[in-house]
Amino acid sequence: MSTAEAPLADLPGTVVVLAGGLSHERDVSLRSGRRVAQALRSQGADVVESDVDSALVPRLTELADAVVFPVLHGEAGEDGALREVLALLGVPFVGSVGAASRVAFDKSIATTVVAEAGLRTPAQVALPHEIFRELGAAALVAALGQQIGFPMMVKPSRGGSALGCSKVSRAEELPAAMVGAYAYGAVAVVEEFVEGTEVTVAVVDRGAGPTALPAVEIRPDSGVYDYTARYTAGATRFLCPAEVEPEVATRCAALALQVHEELGLRDLSRTDLIVTAEGEPVFLEVNVAPGMTETSAVPLAIEAAGWSLGRMCADLVRTAAARGATSGAAGPRVPA
């Protein structure tokens, strides 16, 4: 009998689905949270939906047997701070611990760790706003063009949903792209634009070890997988399994699993990558709280794997409850 077909066990206690927050991705988080809550209720779970506000800690204190399922996108839910608070309160939760989340959330740090592990990543430079302002755009534009080359990608170092991200094809476009990235954070990442097929691979651990789900190929109608393409129904085609050769799909799965391990992640992650014309996967970024909306990739991969979203979420809750409020994974393998 497969894991997906195993008999259901009683779900422990109350599941508190955290969604919303004050990040730029609040609306997406609320949509993801509603879907996860519905999926858990379909499995008979006692679910409480909660925002992150002053009532959260008293609410968790009153629910002595609670397990938290964070579905917070952006800084509030992915930078590790909230997860450290949950550990401090002794509340079991689904997902990666604070230290691992903090590294994964910062694209400049995560890319460095992944590159140190021997995986291919884009050439990248991280520039704080103060440096860009003080040294002057003209000098830095010339240096970036020489080191990174055009086209290039500019994005906030910390953030998600492609907010503040721009593809830059000419030097004169770079200053505006940098300003756009700085609108979402104090550090901008400028990296090599890698041509190829965009795919994303989810890794799930339902209690028996991490498993890579089928790769999802992403084909935005506009040619750019930006915020609109991600969350507007019909604006992007998602192909699952991705239309790549079997050996390429195997490489993508192996990369996602290695990223999950190297960064010390647990339970659930989603790795975004580009497959080059030669069939080589290139790491772009990793997400510890992937979207669960109707237009998100992870639910598609769950379905392609023959699972149900409800069963998967319930298994993650059981795993978290059994683990308790321990620190869990040791954290990322940060290079010296």
Automatic annotation (TrEMBL):
Pathway listed for it is: Cell wall biogenesis; peptidoglycan biosynthesis
* Location relative to the cell: Cytoplasm
Domain ATP-grasp intervals: 111-318
* Active site location: E25, S161, S296
What Enzyme Commission number(s) appear in the record?
Answer: 6.3.2.4
Q: What reaction does this enzyme carry out catalytically?
A: 2 D-alanine + ATP = D-alanyl-D-alanine + ADP + phosphate + H(+)
The cofactor binding remark recorded in the entry reads:
Binds 2 magnesium or manganese ions per subunit.
Per the record, the major location class is: cytoplasm
InterPro entries referenced in this protein's UniProt entry, alphabetically: ATP-grasp (IPR011761), ATP_grasp_subdomain_1 (IPR013815), D_ala_D_ala (IPR005905), Dala_Dala_lig_C (IPR011095), Dala_Dala_lig_N (IPR011127), PreATP-grasp_dom_sf (IPR016185)
Signal peptide per UniProt: none
* Pfam families, sorted: Dala_Dala_lig_C, Dala_Dala_lig_N
A GO CC annotation recorded here is:
cytoplasm
Gene Ontology molecular function, alphabetical: ATP binding; D-alanine-D-alanine ligase activity; metal ion binding
Q: Which residues bind Mg(2+) 1?
A: D272, E285
Q: Which cofactor does it need?
A: Mg(2+); Mn(2+)
Q: Record-annotated residues binding Mg(2+) 2?
A: E285, N287
Q: Which UniProt keywords apply?
A: ATP-binding, Cell shape, Cell wall biogenesis/degradation, Cytoplasm, Ligase, Magnesium, Manganese, Metal-binding, Nucleotide-binding, Peptidoglycan synthesis
Any one biological process term the GO annotation gives? cell wall organization
Q: Which HAMAP family match?
A: Dala_Dala_lig (MF_00047)
Q: Which family does it belong to?
A: Belongs to the D-alanine--D-alanine ligase family.
PANTHER family with a match to the protein in the record: D-ALANINE--D-ALANINE LIGASE, D-ALANINE--D-ALANINE LIGASE B
Describe its function: Cell wall formation.
State what protein this is by name.
Answer: D-alanine--D-alanine ligase
Organism expressing this protein natively: Friedmanniella luteola
